Amino acid sequence: MTNKMSMKKIDLHFLCATTLLAIMLISCNSKAPYRSLTKSITYNHQSSFSAPITGVYHINDSCSRIFFTINTGSLLYIKKTSGTTFAAHYRAHYELHPFDEPNNLQDSGTFEYSDTLFFNKTADILDSFDIGGLRSKKYTLNLTITDLNKKSEIETGIVLLRDDPHSRQNFCIRSATGALINQEVLQPGQDISVTTNNKNLFRLCVRYYRSDYPIALPPFLENRELAYSLKPDSAFLIDLENGTSTLLRLKSNSIYHFQSDTTQKEGLTLFTFYEGFPKVTTAEQMLAPVRYISTKNEFNDLKMMKNAKHAVDEFWLDKAGTVERAKEMIVRYYNRVQDANKYFTSYLEGWKSDRGMIYIVFGPPQALYKSATQETWVYGEDRNILSTTFTFNKVNNQFSDNDYSLERSAEYKDTWYTAVETWRK
Fold first, then answer.
1. Residue 285 neighbours by CB under 8 Å, 6+ apart
2. CA nearest 89: which of 144, 45, 149, 13?
3. Which residue, among 200, 164, 202, 177, has the nearest Cα to 64 in the 3D structure?
4. How many C-beta atoms lie closer than 10 Å to residue 334's C-beta?
5. What is the three-class DSSP state of 374?
6. pLDDT of 21-44, one tens digit each?
7. Model confidence at 370, in pLDDT bands (50, 70, 90)?
8. Alpha-helix runs per DSSP H in 12-147
9. Nearest 5°: CA angle at 114, between 108 and 117?
10. Among 288, 219, 268, 276, residue whose Cα is nearest residue 398
11. How many other C-beta atoms can be found within 10 angstroms of the C-beta atom of residue 58?
């Protein structure tokens, strides 16, 4: 006991800092296919090919622009011949179907891309292509990205909401420099402008919400009622000139809902949390996710400690027993927190969501099935009755299409406590 307490006293001052650095170095960069999958690579940062971030902007009545962002860590850069530069070569292939006719192939196309600028650098590459000849209806687009150098590919799915003139896909956002932004989670303090495809609009209504929501309940407890509020904290108007707004500076922990028609609920929603999100960069950000594997009294005691870094160190050293083991556990746990933020964020941080909770405690599923309205995660051997299966249903959320609710059951109680106890021991 004396040795353990002495070890804590010596190492409390650097454990958080060193392990945070390790997490930031290890972590890397979602929408999954609308066909069924039997792979979990979509939600696994250790996969050799990360799923691209996708976006849609309806340019006009018949044409839509499809965006996809790839992290350079997913691409292989090679020299074709001596004397040439290292280059990545990749292909985007799409297949378009009417939403209610998944077997009716309406259109397809293939585009090839290359990059030489970001060899040996970590960056996100934004590419796009246009699809014409579209009508005012809903479509399903299956997109396959292939790394031509390493012969690997990943598939993702997008629903084109061309039947709704008020949906988020009728807007695009740009930075202060005019660069297109292909994401909905932005940094606080960032300046952005919003563009709509309706050039006859002269202003947009912006509903502002503060984002501060509780974490998910364990899977064996009944879910709460609708967690997000439909009542805004404030609302204001922004003027448009030729369809584009002036610059708007975003606050932290906020939801901005842009609407062209306030009689409709649909619109563009942007989210901010803290600076550096989705990464975990402070002791305070490390402390909150510990709630999933701590008792209520234990967590309350940790929150009462004046120094959050000491509280985090105290928790992990107590569970691990040694500094080295604590570092290993911290890196593993907070990599999952960061992955959850990346994959499952909607109106709340991804680690607080149902999928985030399961991902953090259980890890990436061994098998994953995804449709337009549901995800099923399997832990253990696929189709084995002894395996644990979690089903998440897509929520009709006006703010986000990335909100899923777990089908809870009392049968998960033993499985949950076993998984939590594994972390604690």
1. 274
2. 149
3. 164
4. 26
5. strand
6. 444 444 433 333 333 333 444 677
7. confident
8. 15-26
9. 150
10. 268
11. 23
Are 294 and 300 within 8 A, CB to CB?
A: no
Hey, which bits of 148-265 come out as E strands?
Answer: 152-161, 171-175, 180-181, 185-186, 191-196, 203-210, 234-241, 244-245, 248-249, 254-259
> Token match 């202060």: residue?
176
CB atoms within 10 A of CB 26: 14
Residue with tokens 């299966």: 389
Q: How many residues does the chain have?
A: 425
**Residue 311, amino acid:** A
Residue with tokens 């989670």: 185
- Assigned token pair, 39: 């792979």
Name which of 8, 1, 3, 2 is nearest 316 in CA terms. 8
Three-state DSSP state, 339? helix
Q: Tokens for 149, please give them.
A: 């150098």
Indicate the residue type of 73.
G
Task: Read off the pLDDT of residues 295-316 as tens digits, 9 standing for 90 and up.
Answer: 999 999 999 999 999 999 999 9
